[in-house]
Amino acid sequence: MDFEKVKEIIVETLSCDADKVTPEARLAEDLEADSLAAVELSMALEEEFGVTIADEDLPNMKTVGDLIKYLEDHAE
Question: What does this protein do, in the record's words (predicted)?
Fold first, then answer.
Protein backbone atom coordinates (compact mmCIF):
# COMPACT_ATOMS: atom_id res chain seq x y z
CA MET A 1 0.00 0.00 0.00
CA ASP A 2 1.43 3.36 -1.01
CA PHE A 3 1.69 5.47 2.16
CA GLU A 4 2.28 8.63 0.14
CA LYS A 5 -0.96 8.14 -1.82
CA VAL A 6 -2.94 7.48 1.37
CA LYS A 7 -1.30 10.53 2.96
CA GLU A 8 -2.23 12.69 -0.06
CA ILE A 9 -5.89 11.62 0.23
CA ILE A 10 -5.89 12.28 4.00
CA VAL A 11 -4.40 15.76 3.57
CA GLU A 12 -6.86 16.57 0.77
CA THR A 13 -9.92 15.23 2.59
CA LEU A 14 -9.17 16.49 6.10
CA SER A 15 -7.40 19.71 5.04
CA CYS A 16 -4.68 18.93 7.56
CA ASP A 17 -0.95 19.62 7.59
CA ALA A 18 0.94 16.96 5.62
CA ASP A 19 3.68 16.95 8.27
CA LYS A 20 1.16 15.66 10.81
CA VAL A 21 0.21 12.61 8.71
CA THR A 22 2.34 9.71 9.94
CA PRO A 23 1.44 6.05 10.46
CA GLU A 24 1.18 6.78 14.20
CA ALA A 25 -1.01 9.88 13.79
CA ARG A 26 -4.42 9.47 15.42
CA LEU A 27 -7.25 10.45 13.10
CA ALA A 28 -9.46 12.16 15.69
CA GLU A 29 -6.91 13.55 18.15
CA ASP A 30 -3.98 14.48 15.89
CA LEU A 31 -5.68 15.14 12.56
CA GLU A 32 -8.96 16.49 13.99
CA ALA A 33 -11.17 14.18 11.94
CA ASP A 34 -14.73 14.20 13.25
CA SER A 35 -17.19 11.45 12.34
CA LEU A 36 -18.30 13.22 9.16
CA ALA A 37 -14.70 13.73 8.05
CA ALA A 38 -13.98 10.06 8.78
CA VAL A 39 -16.85 9.01 6.50
CA GLU A 40 -15.64 11.36 3.75
CA LEU A 41 -12.13 9.95 4.15
CA SER A 42 -13.33 6.35 3.96
CA MET A 43 -15.28 7.13 0.78
CA ALA A 44 -12.23 8.77 -0.81
CA LEU A 45 -10.04 5.79 0.10
CA GLU A 46 -12.66 3.32 -1.16
CA GLU A 47 -12.82 5.16 -4.48
CA GLU A 48 -9.03 5.33 -4.87
CA PHE A 49 -8.16 1.79 -3.82
CA GLY A 50 -11.33 -0.13 -4.70
CA VAL A 51 -11.68 -1.41 -1.14
CA THR A 52 -14.97 -1.32 0.75
CA ILE A 53 -14.61 -0.09 4.32
CA ALA A 54 -17.44 -1.51 6.41
CA ASP A 55 -19.25 1.09 8.52
CA GLU A 56 -18.78 -1.03 11.62
CA ASP A 57 -15.02 -1.20 11.02
CA LEU A 58 -14.53 2.55 10.69
CA PRO A 59 -14.64 3.36 14.44
CA ASN A 60 -11.91 0.76 15.03
CA MET A 61 -9.45 2.66 12.85
CA LYS A 62 -7.79 5.08 15.21
CA THR A 63 -4.54 5.85 13.37
CA VAL A 64 -3.31 6.35 9.83
CA GLY A 65 -1.47 3.03 10.24
CA ASP A 66 -4.76 1.30 11.09
CA LEU A 67 -6.25 2.63 7.84
CA ILE A 68 -3.29 1.44 5.80
CA LYS A 69 -3.36 -2.03 7.41
CA TYR A 70 -7.10 -2.31 6.74
CA LEU A 71 -6.62 -1.33 3.09
CA GLU A 72 -3.77 -3.83 2.71
CA ASP A 73 -5.76 -6.62 4.38
CA HIS A 74 -8.83 -5.99 2.20
CA ALA A 75 -7.17 -5.19 -1.13
CA GLU A 76 -8.19 -7.44 -3.98
Answer: Carrier of the growing fatty acid chain in fatty acid biosynthesis.
Does position 76 have pLDDT exceeding 80, yes or no?
no
Please state the pTM of the whole predicted model.
0.92
Question: Alpha carbon 38 to chain centroid distance?
Answer: 7
Give the Cα separation of 48 and 43 in Å (integer).
Answer: 9
CB 53 within 8 A of CB 69: no
- Residue 53's CB is within 10 A of a number of other CB atoms, namely 20
Q: Measured between alpha carbons, how far is residue 25 from residues 45, 61, 63 in Å? A: 17, 11, 5
Q: Which residues are catalytic?
A: 34
